[in-house]
Each structure stands twice: as C-alpha cells, then as structure tokens.
Amino acid sequence: MQTGYVLLATIAVPLLTALALTAVPSRYPNAVRVIAVAVGFVLFGLSLYAFFAYQVADGEQFQFQLRWDWIENVGVLGDHGITLHLGIDGIGAPMVLLTGIVAFAGTLISWKIDYRNKDFFILFMVLVSGVFGVFTSLDLFFWFFFYELAVLPMYLLIGVWGSSSVFPTFARTKEYGALKLTMYLVAGSVLIFIGIFAVFVEAGIGTFDLLALYQVQFDEDFQKIVFPLFLIGCGVLAGLWPFHTWSPDGHVAAPTAVSMLHAGVLMKLGAFGIIRLGMQLLPEGAEFWMPALITLGTVNVVYGAISATAQTDFKYMVGYSSVSHMGYVLMGLATMNPIGVNGAVLQMFSHGVMTALMFAMVGALYDQAHVREMSIFGGLAQRMPRFVAFFAIAGLTSIGLPGLSGFVAEFNVFVGVFRTYPALGALGILGAAITAVYILRMLALAFFGPFNERWKELTEMTRWEQAGGALLIAFILFMGVFPSPFADRIAESVLLIPGVR
Amino acid sequence: MGMTDAWLLPVLPAGAFAVLVLFGPYLPRRGDWLAIAAIFASFVLTFPIIADLTSALAEHGEEFVGAANSIPWLEVPGNLELRLGVHVDAITVVMLVVGSFVALMVQVYSLSYMRGDSRYGWYYAAMSLFAASMLALVLADNFLLLYFAWELVGLCSYLLIGHYSHLRSAAEAAKKAFITTRLGDVGLLIAIILLWRDTGTFGIQEVIAAAQAGEIRTEVLTASVVLLLLGAMGKSAQFPFHVWLPDAMEGPTPVSALIHAATMVVAGVYLVARTLPLFELVAGGPELVLAIGLFTAFLSAFLGLVMTDIKRVIAYSTINSLGLMFVALGVGAPAAAMLYLFTHAFFKALLFLGAGSVIHATERQDVNQLGGLWSKMPLTGVTFAVGAFSMAGLPFLAGFWAKDEILVGALENRVAFSFLLLSLPVTAMYMTRLFILTFLGQAREPEVAKHAHDAPLAMSVPLALLALLTLVTGLVVFDQVGRALGFPGGIGELIFLGEPEVFHFDTGVAAASSELVALGIIAGWFAWAVRPELPQRAAQAFRPIHAMLVNKYYLDDFYQAIIDRVVLAGSRVLAWFDRNVVNDTGVDGSALTTGFMGYLLKFQQTGKLPNYALAMVIGVVALALVAFTLKT
What we know:
The complex is a heterodimer. Chain A is mostly helical. Chain A is built from 20 helices and four strands. In chain A, the strands form two sheets. Chain A has a two-stranded antiparallel ribbon with strand order 1-2. The two termini of chain A are 32 Å apart. Chain B contains 27 helices and two strands. In chain B, strands 1-2 form a two-stranded antiparallel sheet. Chain B starts with 7 loop residues before the first helix and ends with a helix. Classes of the chains: A mainly alpha, B mainly alpha. Chains A and B meet through helix 7, helix 12, helix 14, helix 17 and helix 18 of A and strand 1, helix 5, helix 6 and helix 26 of B.
C-alpha cells in the first residue's frame, strides 16, 4: 500500500518530537534519550517501508504522492500556486532510506551526550525533518523551505556542542567552523533562491509545483543562464571545488552525530538539488554546463584525495575524503549518461552510509581520548578490536573494495565517465588508488603496530555505538553484495531524466 | 554436480567465512573444523567437475569451449548489464585443484602451527575468505567478477600478512602489499572498462572473440593489454612491482605458503594465460610479457644468494619462478606455464611449510642462527630437500619436468633461452645454500638446535603429502600418465585443447639443463659446506655488488624516497595551498573585504544633517544626469 502519509510522517514525526521534547524537563536526560532513539527507530522503519514499498516498473515516475494546496489564485499565484506536494521517485527513495538510517544511527551514537542533551535532540530532530522534506518535496517553495530548515540548526549544533582544534601553525575554533559553514551554505541558497524565482517567472504558469514546471519547455538561453545558479548553489553544499573549504572545517568542529548527518546526508542534498532542480528542470542548461562540472568533479576527486593524504588529524582526513568522494557523485552526474548518473546516485547512498560510519568511529575514539592526532595512537587494535574492525570496514568501503557499497557505486561512475571522457575516468580511478594510500596509512599508523601504553585506559566502544555502527555496516554490505534493489529503483528514474542518454 | 554447479566451490568457504566472523567465538575450537570442512568439500567437489569436463571433451572434442552459468547482479536497462557467473574449462580446473588442495593442506597444517594464537578464529575466517576469493577468481566468466575476486584476494593477503598486527613490520608489510598491488589494479580496472567500451560486454570469452573478429580498435586493444599486464605484474610480483612479496613473509608462515603457492601470486599468471589471445593480437604483446618475465627471473635469482632469512630466500625463489611462468607465457607456451604453476604450487607450499616447521621448532628464521637440524628433524629435512631440489630443477623432481617444458618452449628465442640457461645454476646454488645452512653443518646456536623437534602430526602429514606430490606430479608431461589418470590424450591435450603445442620432452635440453643444475648444486655445496669461508671472501672481494644485492638493488629505498619526497611532500604542499590560499585568502579574504567595506562606509554615518543633505543633492543630480544621458 502506498500512501503519501508515510512521507508526511517522516517530516512531521521529527518536528512533533522536537516540539514534544520541549515539554520534557531537562532533569530527565534519560527520558530524552529514550524518546530520541525511539523516534530514530520509527523514522528508520518508515524510510525502510518507503524504500521497499516503492514499486519498480509501476509506470508512475513519482510515487507516494500527497498534495495539499496551501495558497492559490492569489496575486501572481495561479492554480496549485504553493502546495505541500510530496512524492519520491527512484532517486528519492534511496535518499529517504539513507536519511532514516543515518538519523537512527545518529540518535544511537548521541546517547552519550550529557551537555544539554534535550536542546541537542530538539535541534537534531528539526534538522532531520528538514532533510526528509527536501528529499520528498515536489514543490519549489517547500523544497527551499526544508532546505533552509536543514541548514540552519547546524549553526547552533556546531557552535554549542562542537569542538575546536589547535594545530602547531594554526587554529580552528568551533565558532569559526560553524560560522563559515552556515554563511557558505546560506550564500549558496541565495543563488538557489534567485534561480527558483527566475524559473517561476519565466514559466509564467503561476505555480511552484515541480511536476507542472517539468512540463514547461524553457528557452535555451534562459536555461544556460539559470542552470549555473542551481549548479553552484547546490554545489556548495555538495562540496564542489573550490567551494569546499567549509566542509573539512565544519565537519571537524561538529559533534559526532552532526558530522554524520552533515557529511552523510546534507552533502547529498546538494547533489540531489543538482538533479531535481538543475538537470530535471533545465536539461539543456545542464548539457551546456556539464563539461565544466566534470572538470571540477575530477579536481574534487584528486585534490580531495591528495589533501587527505597530508592530514594528520582523523577528522580532517575524513573531511577531505568526503570532498574527494563527493567528486565521484559530481563526475557521475556530469556524464549525463544513465550509467554515470546511476553511479552518482548509488555513490550518494554509499558515501552517506560509509562516511557516517567513519565519523561515528572517529567520535567514539575522540570522546575517550580527547585527541584526534593519528600518530600519537598506535596498536589500538589490541585494545579495541571491534572499533578497529568497524573503522577498517568504513575505510575499505571508501577504497572501493568489492563486496562493499563503494565499489558498486564507483564502478558505475567509472564506466559512465569512461563512456564520454576516458582521460578523466583514468584520473578518477587514480584517485581511488590515492584513497588506498591515505586509508591504509591511517590504519597502520593508529591501529596496528605496537600498543602505545599511554592509551591503556581506553575501552571498547559503548553498546550504543556498536549498534549504530552495525546498522550502517549492514547497509554497506547489503548494497555491496545485492545492489539491484538500489540500482533498479535508481536506474528506472535516471532514464526518465530529460537529457540523460 | 556438473560444471555449471561450480559456483558452489567458492560459496562453501565464503559461507564458512561468514559463519566464523559472526559466530566464531561461540563455536567449539572457534570453528577451525568448519573452515577445514568447507575447503575439503570444495576440493572433493572438483573431481565431479573434472569428470564432467572430460566427458564433455570426449563428446564435443575441440568444439568445446567451456561451460558457463551466470546470474544477473546489476542492470541499467539498455546500457549496462553486470552478471556474476562461472566458466569452467581446462585452465580453470587446474587452478581449482591447485587452489583448493594447497588451501586444504595449509589449513590442516595451521591446526598445529597456529595453536594458541590470540586470533585463531579470525585466522581461519580470513583463510576461508582467501580460498573462496581465489576459487571465484579462477571461475569467473567475466572481468567484473574476476576484478571483484581479484580485489578480495588482495584484501585477504593484507589481512593475513598483517596478522601479527602488534608488530610494526607486519603492519607495514601488509600496507606495502596492498598498495603496491593496487597500483597495478588501477591498470586492470581501466583495461576492463576500455575493453567494455569497444565490445559492450564484460564476458572474458566474448571480449576475446570480439578482439579476434577485429571489433576492438588497435590502439584500444594495445592500451588494454598493457594495462591488463600491469595488474598481472602487481599481483604476480613482477619487476618492478615485486617489492611487496619478500616483505609479505611477515605473515604467519602457512599464509606465506598459501600466498606464494596457490592464491595470490599465481592470479597474475592465470590472468595472462586466460587473456593470452588478446596479447597475441597486439604487436609486441608476447614479447613484452617475455621481457618482463626474463628480467624478473634473472634479477631475483641473484638476490637469493645473499639473503639470510630462510623465508626471504624462498620468497625470492618465488619471484624467480613467477618470472619463469611469464617467460613461458611470453614465448607462447601457456601449457608449460600452467604446468609449472601446477608443480610449483606443491613444492613451494612444501618449502614454506618446511620453513614453518623449522621456525616452529627453533623460533629462529635467520640461517646464521640455524644449522645442524638434519638429525633433529629428519622428516622436515627430507621433505625440505625434496622441495628445494625440485625448485633447483634437479632431474626427476616435479620442477625439473616443468622447467624443461619452459626451456623447450623458449628454444626458438635464442636470447631468452640463453638467459634461462644462465639463471639455472644460480637458482640451484641458492637453494643448495639454503638447505645446507639450515640443516647441515654445525649448529650455530647449539642450545636452539638441541631442543628442536620434528613437526607434530597435523604439520607432518601435509609435508609428507606435498613431498609425495612433488616427486610425482611432473610425470604428467607424459601423455601415457595423463591417459592412465583418465584424461583422453594426456594432460597437455586437456589444458590447451586445439593448441598445436602439447608437452614434449626434449632429451638434449634436459641434458643441458641437468648439467647446469648439477653444476650449481656442486658449486653451492663447495662454497657453503666444504669451504664455508669462501662466500665471505667473495663478498669482501666484490663489495659493491654484494652491497647492491643485500640492498635489493636499492629499489625499496628508491620507492621510499619517492613516497616521502614526492607523494607526501606534494600532498603537504597541496594541503597548505588549500588552507592558506583557497580558504584563508579566498574565503576568509572575501569575508574580510566585506567587513572592511562596511568599516569604510560607517564613516559616512556622521549624524550631521548638512552631510546627508549634501549627499542627497549629489545623488539627485547624478541620477538626473544619468536619466538625461539615457534619454538622448
């Protein structure tokens, strides 16, 4: 049974939870935790349901539709001017699932937060609600509304619960990270905002409804001018080079669960926006600008990987690794062929789960050791074998080891890129080899070799962290071994994107 | 159980892996019996497959190209179809027998060798995955599954080489193995995609057929073949990618046996043998393989002479052997390469397991600390001698027959043939040296030798079985033996059906090679047993050459310098650029500029009415001027 109320619930449940949490007295932190984890579980269940109940070869491009008119026939607005219109296609379905997984894992990992945990979870739930909203909205107005809803709580989450880093030659305070991240993303959304109004005015049908706007044939010059607004506006959030520097600093400053959601899900909002607004709305503009995107995407991959090699701090390494891996998403999208775009969306899911796992593990270590410098550890495998195993699985996924999700995604991206741009495809594969260098270096340095006695106080991860990690690993393996439930949904919708052939 | 059911072979040990990882700690004996049962089942199941294959061959004759069976895995309709499937033909069968048998022997041996290890259960899990990946690799009917298994083989070698993870050297060796082979894998992956681009398929047989039909552009085919070869060179430790293999001995000794004999390093040889038709379509393709093989075989032979670690000497002998296999492939004698691979698997596993027995008994692995073990460990000594002299190429042992086939194959090529002959006595010499220093003469550490004891049952049974096989397997070159075993036309016919060349024993070549081998053994005997001071004097006399050999031609230092001075230094420069130029100048700079503009503008807010009035007047006049200009 398909009903749009499932999607509505993914947005409403966390919002209502945030509201309800305000009523819980903060002297009961455990009650807050139980509520948060329970809601996380419910969201996970809802997203799992939405993913599997989505019918492949149904004939409907968008399923689970729900349409509530809000404002219409006022001023410039015509019929269905602004509607709460929800629905997912085969691209939205795995993204909803991803959000459910990471949100649930995030609540589990955040069990140990002590400082003002009620406020933390209120903001966390608002953020999650916004993310679900972006992935399911089919109305530009609400799309933008949820986009902002997802970005803004970040500022407080990082500024209050984050951590500052001091290096020998420079320092990055959490306030700096929070401010830069928020300013940058808001700057990006200004471009998106302009683009949305340009599209609304140019279409002249008085509605923000995406499905209606998809039917409009925009003028080619208009498309060429407006597409870069969406590309850069959303690209900022996707970590597009050279607008990526908020990402390492922001992720490093953020608390664990926020890094997980941010790198795992929010960066995908950017890539998702490039598809939903850019490619689907303005296919000719996309075609015109894609050579630029594939160049920048390749720079992302190689530049991010080389920068990650130089990092000595766990979180900075993971942060730059995210920049590199999001490059594969951008490369895949820029191919404009079904294989590459399919690979890009697979990579959005894969990287989301994988990077969430990595940040979760970094957090598990940092909370005990209070340092993130790789070289001062050593031999942790003897002390925390399960932690090291989880970390290694995340690392191997990012290397693109077959049997784990990263391989499936990257293989599709490579094949797609090779079809159009063989030289850049070779660079992309080289980027994957550099990934092996920094990941294996990190593993050897921090986790293997003789045990450093300084860390004999460290203990294995908490049960909550293990549960969260195991959940993420389950999906890494699921997609790595049986990719077709994902690929079937994605490929079907990718083939419907105009201009993808 | 026919050929199309062969997928079961890798699935059994893979299942054992999954069970051991999830439930290992709750199983009796941490589940070692399950791992062994799984690989034993895989080994036994190869026989019905062989029977099915021989009957299919008898029925269809030369038209039989192999049986395939596959399932869909991932599909982008109309664009990309990825399948997982098996393909069984004669090469596959050889690899299946070797892989499953050696893995079985090694796992039985490990029952005793690894007893008491803190990660005993994990060891068996990784071993199972290793065997499963290798079986999947040789069964793969398409490049995708081949790459899939290829990478998993790399992973397992990483895990097992680094098994003693508390040792810094083991962690480094594991990392080195993974990264070095992965550099080659970049080439392999690019080649696979390039071939797909021109043919639209990942199927190995389909790609070969398309290439033979001329459907692949020449430059693409050339590039693909070179890149495929890169992948094979990485895995098969060919020069200049060989540096990881000697370090790989940091893993437990049974792991070395598996890596060197049956799983990891022969994957590259298998890949080239499998895709040899592609190489033959490219001008200079076979010659390239030949040159790399010769270079590798020749250079590694000398290193065996100076190494003092027992496992390191055997490791260089493996590189030597792998070079020989590439030579055989390069001269167009894949049957000889496969025969060498087959016999090599047994005697190399035997050598490593024998070395393991020595290490187990003495806890020493430097030959300068060993010696005089012959009487203490007769079984190990005898079996080790069989392995060592088989490697040396002593007549009537397995290595002799296989090496002879390679020499016969290279007969046409004068240069290759002479280099091969030259390397023979060197190989014989260092294997003799290794045997003498380990087992004969005075014990250099009498305390250690006194307490040495022969291998326990679980270790001695595999040793004895492998020694037995080393004595007899070479005889399969004779068609009569093959026919007696039930293969119509002998093993050579079986392996390379329809190829004009089958095994042929050449008395002249055999006599020449036997003499050279005997020369090497006698020289080794003289230098290390009769006049032990001779090697030191030689090392003194040729000090630069000796230093070059001990330092492994300075290749490791060269690579280390590249990593430190180029890769890491370069990455630090880029990270500095990112922080200082892109971020602090670009991002923070634009923020600061905005702030500075605000600072400048704030002085306009004087709070004095005349200033504001003046600004207004100027503004109005300016706007009026603009309006007039635009109007006219």
